[in-house]
Specification:
The complex is a heterodimer.
Chain A (H helix, E strand, L loop, with lengths): L2 H9 L6 E3 L2 E3 L7 H10 L3 E9 L6 E9 L2 E9 L3 E3 L9 H11 L2 E3 L24
Parallel strand pairs in A: 2-5, 6-7
Antiparallel strand pairs in A: 1-2, 3-4, 4-5
Chain B lengths: L1 E6 L11 E7 L2 E8 L7 H5 L6 H6 L7 H16 L5 H30 L2 H22 L8 E2 L2 E2 L10 H21 L1 H7 L7 H7 L3 H5 L7 H4 L20 H25 L17 E9 L2 E9 L6 E7 L1 H5 L3 H5 L7 H6 L5 H5 L1
Antiparallel strand pairs in B: 1-2, 2-3, 4-5, 6-7, 7-8
Classes of the chains: A alpha/beta, B alpha+beta.
Chain lengths: 135, 360
Amino acid sequence: MTALESIPERLGIAEPWVEKNGVYWLRTGSLEVRELAKQMNALNARFVTITAYQLPGDEGFRLEYHWDLDGQLLGFPFFVSGNSIDSIYDLCEAADWIEREVHEGFALNFVGREYEPLLLRQDDTPGVNLREEVV
Amino acid sequence: MSYKIPMGPYHPALEEPYKMDMICEGETICDVKLHIGFNFRGIEHLAETRNYIQVIALMERVCGICSNIHTLTLCQAMEQLTGLKPPPRALYIRVVMAELERLHSHVLWAGIAAKLMGFKTMFMTCFALREKVMDTLQAISGNRVNYSMNRIGGVNRDIEDPLALLSVIDQLEREMVRTVIPIFTTSTTAQSRCAGIGVLTREKAISCGVVGPTARASGLPQDIRRAAPYAAYSELEFDVPVQTDGDVRARLLVRALEIMESCRILRQALTKMPPGEIHVDDGKIVFTAGTAVSRVEAPRGEVMYSVSWKENSRNPSRVHVRTPTFANMPAIRWMALGARLADTPLIQASIDPCYSCTDR
């Protein structure tokens, strides 16, 4: 079994990978993002980025976490109904800046960390940039 | 007693605005805090207000050095959403543009590194070499910075006589082998300023998620052109230079060797370029709703675009750009720890940072 094939089992996910245009996607269901980060660390996967999307109406947000495993890009979508999700910064230092960027762009809170300004300068409000309605 | 020395946001050692707050004891750096955002333009938000033609021109302006790479990555993502596949000749032209861009970026970096070492004659040599590459890019595209070469389903301009460009490649390679590489690898000035300076260990490179030459200089053999080939890279032979020392010299060597590999790729692409159309005759472009992800290997490392489209829309609903400097910059902190204050301009420059990319 390859490292890629072993990931759903490691994460306790029954559904297999879905490959789309070179990206391997896995539905995360009730998986905790911190558990995912721990497993990716164990596999020596390289953290790539988090892409945040605001969903229509009151549906919240979709956060796509990407890791690279030996050149294969892995995608893990997480749905956030409120305004917060656990931070993985303490497990994955590469996630520091992108968590700060998503916080500033969408006013999302990554629980368990503190923020310093990244892209927004003094007196700017988190969420004014990419979020449709500022909270 | 420790004290704080700020460098930037506007400083002679920085090419663009950002700020390093260095905590020093004597001449030794004990900690570094990085501040970016001085160039923030909100381009990702602007992209949501542009249609599929305008957004290409907008994203070309994310970066003044690797402008072509941004439109290439964006167009690859939009091609996934439209189902348009570029013809083979267009894929080769994309490789030629990407490698010429890598050449001019790496030679420009070598010049700036030489200047920061106090080696100004080498700076002039590198910039004279770079000018030849810029002339070639201008001859192909008509432009020196924003080339406007990529479009959905191909490229905008043909390379009418590919073999005529071989002489430029020969000239550049000859000058690299005869002058630039020997001086950078053997001169006492370069050795004393670069060897053992600004070390990023392999373990730290992995945990920081660094990419491109910065990663390859710390022993990580990652290159999107090899791992997940795009355009015509799967049909071309090349090596991925890797060094293990993780210092400024290793990053310099990786880029020097990559210049040679780019010349090798260009020679193959120019001689093997197939005849035919340079873009698909599209008529009306129709996007399917959904999200597409595209990655390419820019001169500084992996660029990733996530592009999302809504049903019947002319504008993207989201364009997220992860640039290589965004991934590499936090690692400067680890490179600078324990270094001498006087080495920090060169250490921060050794990742070839692009702040306009980082801030977007």
